[in-house]
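quick one before i forget lol
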Amino acid sequence: MNNKLVFSILSLGVLLCAKTYAGGVYVGNGGDAVFCRSSENNSFKGYYALDYLMTLTNANEVASVKSWEASRDRIRALLAKGAPSLLESFDSFLGDLDNQVDWTKKRIWLSAPHGLVDIQDEQIRRKLPENCGWKNLGSIEQEMVQVVVRNKQPHIVRYEYDEEVFNKLKAAPVQISFLLVHEWLWDHSEDPQIIRWTNQFLHSQHAETLSASDFNTSLVNIGITAKPSAFLSVCERSPGVAKSIVDLFRKSCEFVTPEELNTKVDHIFTNDSRLTIYDLAGMTRLNQFSLADSAIYYLPVNLFETNPYLEYVEFVNLPNLNSIPEAIFANNPKIVKLTIQNVGWSPESLDFLKGKPLSYLTLQGLKQQTLPKDFLAPLGAGIFQIDLSGGSFKSVEPGFFAAIKNKHCKVFLTRSQFTPEVVKQMRDEAESLNIKVHFN
């Protein structure tokens, strides 16, 4: 993708300030740019993102960046430290920024070569600098430039943008970053003032000085959260998740209500190649989740955040999934059965399962050469069956079976992985502890 296209797209959606509903389509009505004429009274000259000018203060300077990429990485680092849930969302948003032709994705950007009609929805509460707010250098009337119109439909968000203004905005990395981050924040708030001040905060030098706790508190106090800004309809969720719900209720996705999701959805079976933090939101009674036969390479850490009754989880045949977040089950105290089979990820430890009432654990395909003696130590006394077959490890450290707290536990291994001497060593140790080892 060339730089011109990247910068055009990055500039496009982020000036949205309001949201209405019309004809079954949510419309985030309008994005605006501001043109500043040269003046002896200040340094403003050229096009600016409206958010930038509307949140200028004397006390909180905007961080200087040399490129959009530098600003993007800076904000990612801030979110990784203080708001990991928002980082998941930000990365998901960035994933469709290069899409101008594919209607199967969640977002699409469409250029308007002849410009857009001003829909006058700026909700401005502050005065602009006296030399700013003109449509262009030759204008005789003070007005905003309509840069974007946003339409949120059941399955996709469509953006139409003024290509000429985008190309002028691309010369200023800070302005592009303000635009892009604004558009992403629309996923988390419907209030243009909350979006603007969160945008300013994320671009501020002050944000870099805060602890993780204070950074998160600041976002909450401004009014932003990692939750969806409103009920996310089934139609807007990832295709496999939506299909699983539709199959359960036997009715079209737009007719499934929040109450039905909350009280009646007890299982989700999907093969989605991408999942977001919102896909399972509102499914309080979800008991079983299966993700199988997918090219997915990333799981949001907050995927199961709103599913406190989740008990059975299955990840099967996911060759591109090279990591599973350690905190993915942080809000799931009832996990009793976990299957991780033929995935790209091979855990170095099972600390992410500490404190879970796990009874059945399947970890097939472990890639370590030797499993450490404390590998199974995080598992509780309720563990009844452990399946470690099909891996590539060749041995276990002495004391490996002693870490199992339930001495009636059954352990399954693949005989062909080990030499006869190693098989005998493992069998002798297990039998001395009354643990049953089965070699397939």
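fyi The radius of gyration is 26 Å.
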